[in-house]
Design brief:
Layout (H helix, E strand, L loop, with lengths): L1 H31 L7 H8 L3 H8 L2 H16 L1 H8 L4 H18 L1 H13 L4 H25 L9 H11 L2 H10 L4 H16 L29
Length: about 230
């Protein structure tokens, strides 16, 4: 019995090592030839496995790329995004989510750049995995916008749908990369620009410390009510 358990453990470790080699081979190929469709023959060669082994482990070509995208995001910081979403403070949800997303992209920017480019070049493989994650991200923006509205933090002149769209743009890889690579800003500055822009676009100003009264909307034209704004 002890020998059988040992053999099972060795086989499991060997399978995990093989899986890791295949995923690493995908990453290396994307870096070495970012403009070329990903060849499973080349991945198998670089991982020192048979092509059939890739199908045995991942089930299909699409399954390989789904696993690769999941692994990449797990390694580069998806847990921090999940933590931000779970915050009881909706402003920390917004701030922490955008910050964690930017840090995730920065952790392996070159691979993320290739993945998003491949969404157009090879939509049936890598691109399909990207679209699945982008669909989940959109759902996250919808959830955040509804939380902002429900908590009274969303500006009166911004609908939940408008907030969702603004947040979708600001939390995207493209917005991150236009500042990080396009302008060459340090990561902390990129985060500050994205978070500050998002808050100013969709949220009432946060109350100052020691003042628990939330800001109220300024009086609209033609509105005789004297709604004072907190400064």
């Amino acid at each position: 019995m002890a020998m059988r358990k040992y053999e099972q453990r060795v086989r499991a470790e060997s399978a995990e090592e093989t899986r890791r080699r295949i995923l690493d081979a995908v990453a290396q190929r994307l870096k070495d030839a970012p403009t070329e469709p990903l060849s499973l023959d080349v991945v198998a060669r670089d991982a020192r496995v048979a092509r059939s082994t890739i199908y045995l482990i991942f089930g299909s070509r699409a399954g390989l790329f789904d696993a690769f995208a999941d692994d990449l995001m797990a390694r580069t910081g998806m847990a921090a995004i999940t933590e931000a979403v779970a915050s009881p403070d909706v402003r920390e949800h917004l701030r922490g989510g955008i910050a964690a997303g930017a840090r995730m992209y920065a952790a392996d920017r070159d691979i993320y750049r290739v993945l998003f480019a491949m969404d157009q070049l090879d939509p049936q493989s890598v691109g399909g995995a990207v679209r699945k994650h982008e669909s989940a991200r959109r759902g996250g923006m919808t959830h955040l916008a509804r939380r902002l509205r429900a908590s009274g933090v969303l500006r009166d002149d911004v609908s939940a749908k408008q907030a969702e769209r603004v947040l979708w743009v600001l939390a995207s890889f493209e917005s991150f990369d236009s500042l990080y690579t396009g302008l060459g800003l340090p990561l902390d500055d990129v985060i500050d620009v994205l978070v500050t822009t998002a808050e100013r676009a969709v949220c009432w100003p946060a109350p100052r410390r020691g003042n628990s009264t939330p800001p109220t909307a300024p009086a609209r034209r033609g509105d005789g009510s004297a709604r004072a704004s907190t400064r």
